[in-house]
Design a protein that fits this description.
Elements (H helix, E strand, L loop, with lengths): L3 H7 L11 H12 L6 H10 L2 H12 L6 H20 L14
Helix pairs in contact: 2-3, 4-5
């Protein structure tokens, strides 16, 4: 995570006039590194709601690849990482609770 001092040094009031929060800066960084600037609103939502470590892992996976569509690869890897975390959150030996109702 960047300090406020680092963010303010990079802040350009003419170019970044609509950026007022740190997660917005990170979302724009995601969009630029993935070469997917038209979908920056999606990255804004993700930067606001998803933990930063998960986003950074998915980003490092995509930046190192030679994929044509890095945005799609990022979304796939993000889905994989989030599914892995949910699976770890379940107690050992238990699966999802399914209730069957017979009429």
């Amino acid at each position: 995570m960047q300090s406020i001092n680092q963010v303010l040094k990079k802040f350009d009031p003419v170019k970044d006039k609509y950026v007022s929060r740190e997660f917005q800066t990170f979302a724009l960084k995601l969009a630029e590194e993935l070469d997917d600037y038209p979908h920056r609103a999606i990255y804004m939502r993700l930067a606001k709601t998803v933990h930063r470590s998960i986003l950074e892992k998915a980003l490092s996976f995509c930046v190192d690849s030679k994929a044509d569509n890095k945005g799609a690869l990022f979304m796939w890897k993000l889905k994989e990482l989030r599914a892995g975390i949910k699976k770890q959150a379940l107690p050992a030996g238990r699966q999802e609770l399914r209730i069957r109702v017979d009429k």
